[in-house]
Amino acid sequence: MDKSRSSDAWSLRGLIPDNHPRRESLIVREKLVEALENGILVAQGLIAHGRGECFDYLIGEKTQSFAELAEKVAVAMLLLAKNPVISVNGNMAALVPKEIVELAREVNAKVEVNLFYRSEERVKAIAEELKKNGAEKVLTEGDATIPELFSERRKVSKEGMYSADVVLLAMEDGDRTQALVNMGKKVIAIDLNPLSRTSLSATVTIVDNVIRAFPNMIRFAREMKEVRREEIKKLIDQFDNKKNLSESLKFISSRLIQLSEDL
């Protein structure tokens, strides 16, 4: 690894000035580059991040009301689930490893590594990163198969995603999201693109950046533990994912109009 790129707890002083207007974005990019060098991420993950970052610009790089609602509903589903699982890929492990572990602990979810570009080396590297951030157990076995799929992502853990009733995932390919839904699972997707196949197929779509979504969900999980089960279920029952996605598109549309008028 190029030591000059070492983040020193992601302060990156000397590389990125504290007052740089794109500081947070550049720090995220450095995390991804380091993850690439450490075998956690593949180059295709950088492309996926860049596509998502474009949509993040469109929503103002903030958690908007439609995303906050979806995050609350997602937490409600995880809290009521019998066997919730958080599916982790390279981008997630690079950006929010500690937060993945914290959320899993708060909602009593299992953590499973699942990759499109799967190799035993990458699976091991991601599992080690999660354990370094406090995970006691990480599922890595591909001892079960998701019907309909032919990529490496068809391989899942029988103890984890295969038997899960609720799955939380991010930066996911649409065919696997649909396949999981077809298996009768409730799928929570974190996806900045409200028009992606994943967003349109998921049970709950969170149009937000993972670096904001996970901390928000951790906070909601702690708050909602004091809420009665009936109230949590009511929140889920009243949620309409298509309507919420529509709100995100309306927001983007109105924001673009406003930005054009402000030029």
TrEMBL record:
Binding positions for ATP per the UniProt entry: 29, 51, 191-193, 197-198, 209-210
UniProt catalytic activity: (R)-4-phosphopantoate + beta-alanine + ATP = (R)-4'-phosphopantothenate + AMP + diphosphate + H(+)
Pathway in which this enzyme or protein is active: Cofactor biosynthesis; coenzyme A biosynthesis
Record EC number: 6.3.2.36
GO BP term, pick one: coenzyme A biosynthetic process
GO molecular function, one term: ATP binding
InterPro entries to which the protein is assigned, alphabetical: PPS/PS (IPR002855), PPS/PS_sf (IPR038138)
Keyword list, A-Z: ATP-binding, Coenzyme A biosynthesis, Ligase, Nucleotide-binding
Gene3D superfamilies assigned to the protein according to its UniProt record, in alphabetical order: Phosphopantoate/pantothenate synthetase
Top-level taxonomic group: Archaea
HAMAP family registered for this protein in UniProt: PPS
Family: Belongs to the archaeal phosphopantothenate synthetase family.
Subunit composition and interactions: Homodimer.
Annotated function: Catalyzes the condensation of (R)-4-phosphopantoate and beta-alanine to 4'-phosphopantothenate in the CoA biosynthesis pathway.
Protein name as annotated: 4-phosphopantoate--beta-alanine ligase
